[in-house]
Amino acid sequence: MNLYLLRHGIAVDPGASVKDAERPLTPRGRRRLAQIAGAMRALRISYDLILASPYVRARQTAEITVRALKLRKKLESFEALTPGGNPQALIQHLNGLRPRPKNVLLVGHEPYLSKLVALLTSGNTNMEMDFKKGGFCKLEIETLRCGRCATLVCLLAPRQMALMSKRVA
C-alpha cells in the first residue's frame, strides 16, 4: 500500500468567533493547494480512496484535490484524522477495507500526521518533523500495522510541490 499524507492548507487564524473545527482555508491557502493538486496531477498520482478529517479546512483541502484529480466519488470523511485522532482506529479501518486499496490519501492535521509518520516508520511517536501546511508525504507499506511497518519515500514542503506543478505542467 502507498499511503500519502497531505496536511490541510493555510486556514484562517484561530479566534473567538470561529471554532477550531470550523476554520476555513484562506484564499492564499486555496491557491497553494490548487498548485499542490496540480503537481499531483502532473506526476500522475491517483488514489483509490481519500480520507479526510471532518474539520472544514481539511475537508476543503481534500475537495480541492479531488476536483483537480477528478476523483470525487472516492472522498470520505474520517473522524480519526482530527488533530487528536487515534492512529489505531485509522489502521484498523484501512486494514478492514476490501478490496484493499493500493493508493490512499489521508488529509489531516498536525500533530496527528507527523506522529502517524513517526509511528509507522520508527515504531514510536518521538520523531520530530516539520510537516508544513500543505505538506505532502508518501509512505510505502507492505503490511500495515500499529508500529514500524513503513518506508518514508518523500516529505515535500508546499513550495516544492508548487514548483513541481510549474515545472511538470
Description:
This protein has 169 residues and is α/β, with parallel strands linked by helices. The protein contains 5 helices and 6 strands. It has a 6-stranded mixed beta sheet with strand order 3-2-4-1-5-6, with helices on both faces. A hairpin with an 8-residue loop joins strand 5 and strand 6. Helix 1 packs parallel to helix 2 and helix 1 crosses helix 5. The longest helix is centred in the N-terminal third of the chain and has 16 residues. The chain is globular.
Can you tag this structure with a few keywords?
single chain; 169 residues; 6-stranded mixed β-sheet
pLDDT averaged over residues: 93
Widest sheet: strand order? 3-2-4-1-5-6
Shape estimate: globular
Write the element-wise H/E pattern from the N-terminal end onward.
Answer: EHEHEHEHEEH
Rg (CA only): 15 Å
**Assembly state:** single chain
Stretches where pLDDT falls below 50 for ≥5 residues? none
Q: What structural class should be given to the helix and strand makeup?
A: alpha/beta
Largest sheet: 6 strands, mixed
Strand percent estimate: 15-25%
Number of helices: 5
Distance between the termini: 27 Å
The total strand number stands at 6
Percent range of helical residues: 25-40%
How is this fold's topology laid out?
Layout: E1 2-7, H1 27-42, E2 49-52, H2 56-69, E3 75-77, H3 87-96, E4 103-108, H4 112-122, E5 136-141, E6 150-156, H5 158-168
Parallel strand pairs: 1-4, 2-3, 2-4
Antiparallel strand pairs: 1-5, 5-6
